[in-house]
Design a protein that fits this description.
Elements (H helix, E strand, L loop, with lengths): L25 H11 L7 E4 L6 H8 L4 E6 L2 H14 L5 E5 L2 H11 L3 E6 L8 H10 L3 E12 L7 E2 L2 E9 L2 E8 L1
Parallel strand pairs: 1-2, 1-4, 2-3, 4-5
Antiparallel strand pairs: 5-8, 6-7, 7-8
Length: 183
Amino acid sequence: MRVISGDKRGLHLKAVPGSTTRPTTDKVKESIFNMIGPYFNGGVALDLYAGSGGLGIEAISRGIEKTIFVDQNKKAIETINHNLAQCHFHERAEVYRNDAARALKALIKRELAFTVIFLDPPYAKQNLANEISIIVDYHLLDENGIIVCEHDSQVELQEEIGQAIKERTETYGDTTISIFTYK
C-alpha cells in the first residue's frame, strides 16, 4: 500500500495489523482519485472509516488542505498516526477514535462542510444510505462536494438519497465505488 500521486508519491504506508480492516487497493484508490480529482486546490476531507488513513493521506498528497480521520479501532488510530508522521502530515490532520454515528454528531456541532467525504465501512457493517442522509441533511458536504462510498459489489445504493444524487458507479471485482453529490 502506497501513496499513488502528489507530494508524497511512492511513499509506502503501513497497513492496520490483523484482519479487522480491508485496505483499499492501490488500483481502486487510483481509480477513485481519477474519478473525483485527480488533484485538489485546498479544501477539507473527512475519512470516516479511516483504517490505515490511506484515502485521507492520498487526498492531502493531492492538494487537500486538511483531513479529519475517524476510526473506532485502536490499532487503526495508531496506524493512522504512524502514517501521518511518516508523511509529515500531522499538522494537516485531526485524528479521532470514535464510531461513525457519534463522529457525525460531533462534526454537525462544529458546523463543518467537507470538500470530499470518504465512506469505506467494513462491508458487514454498512449503513451508507443513512450516513449519506445525515451528511446532506446537516450540510456536512460542501455545496460542490463529493461523497465517495466504497462498498460490496452486492450492495446497490439508491440513485437518490435525500438531497444527494449518485453521479457515478464503478465496480472492481467485489468492490464498488459510488460517487454522490448534491442534486
